[in-house]
Specification:
Elements lengths: L1 E5 L4 H12 L4 E5 L12 H5 L12 H7 L2 E4 L3 H14 L2 E4 L6 H10 L4 E4 L5 H16 L5 E8 L9 H14 L3 H4 E2 L14 E7 L5 E9 L2 E9 L3 H14 L5 E3 L1 H5 L2
Parallel strand pairs: 1-2, 1-3, 3-4, 4-5, 5-11, 6-8, 7-8
Antiparallel strand pairs: 6-9, 9-10
Helix pairs in contact: 1-9, 3-4, 4-5, 6-7
Length: about 260
């Protein structure tokens, strides 16, 4: 299985490269970095800190798509959309772990998925995807006397808020209630907001230190509270999930898939 990596010079990109190298039956087909960066033209193994025979990095994505059976992308929304179009044009399976995508950008991914198998997930860990399912079930079981609040914390370098995983949890809760997050979501609060409206799904975002990712969904009801929490101790769970998704996606029929499909949930 030949796996390409968009943004292989980034922290997640390097971890994915290591994971591919450690996965039996998989090899690195190539990887991209920013044009003119100091990482351009360096062997991916050397860049990622392991021993092995790997291609050199490139700023041109086209050769990577031409060589790969499947490409993994953890870059930035605009770049990911551009790469999805290249994947569709080249017939290459595509795995997206990029967060912060707008509704319009997600529609672009769905368009590309008409031509290729495309896995798109705000979080690729097994635990978080189990949490999505649990949140939906609990939200469906409890009425609006239980208020839903989502608290997430990440490292200081994270640029989007709330996190893609937090938004995914909000969508799961909304689906359990038979509503949409667009209707009921309150992504932040400031000033004199007045009493909390029944049925809202609130968010609180924390940033600091080197926290990999903590997410808690709180169901606060009369005289009792239910909390569902996932804490990531290492980004290796995301890299492992991405490679698993890549191996699963290659050779599939075109379509937009999610991690529950990959994991058989």
């Amino acid at each position: 299985m030949k796996i390409g990596i968009m943004g292989v010079g980034g922290f997640m990109g390097r971890m994915i490269a290591k994971q591919v190298h450690q996965t039996e039956g998989a090899i690195i087909a190539g990887g991209t970095v920013l044009k003119g960066s100091t990482e351009e033209g360096i062997e991916i193994a050397k860049l990622s800190g392991f021993e092995g025979d790997t291609p050199k990095t490139t700023s041109d994505a086209m050769p990577v798509f031409a060589e790969a059976d499947v490409v993994i992308d953890f870059t930035a929304p605009e770049a990911t959309v551009a790469h999805a179009k290249l994947a569709a044009a080249s017939g290459t399976a595509f795995v997206v772990g990029t967060t912060g995508m707008t509704t319009e950008q997600e529609a672009e991914l769905a368009q590309a998925a008409k031509h290729i198998p495309l896995v798109y997930a705000p979080n690729m860990s097994l635990g978080v995807n189990l949490l999505f399912d649990l949140v939906k079930k609990v939200a469906a079981a409890l009425d609006e006397s239980f208020d839903i609040e989502i608290v997430e914390m990440h490292h200081r370098r994270k640029v989007d808020a709330p996190s893609g995983t937090a938004l995914g949890l909000g969508k799961a809760a909304a689906a359990g209630r038979g509503v949409t997050l667009e209707e009921k979501g309150v992504l932040s609060r400031e000033g004199v907001t007045g009493p909390r409206e029944s049925g809202q799904i609130g968010f609180a975002t924390l940033r600091g230190g080197d926290v990999v990712g903590d997410h808690t969904v709180i169901f606060a009801g009369p005289n009792e509270r239910i909390e569902l929490t996932h804490k990531a101790a290492s980004r290796e769970i995301f890299a492992s999930g991405a490679v698993r998704a890549a191996i699963w996606a290659a050779g599939r029929e075109p379509g937009l898939y999610a991690m529950p499909d990959v994991l058989g949930l």
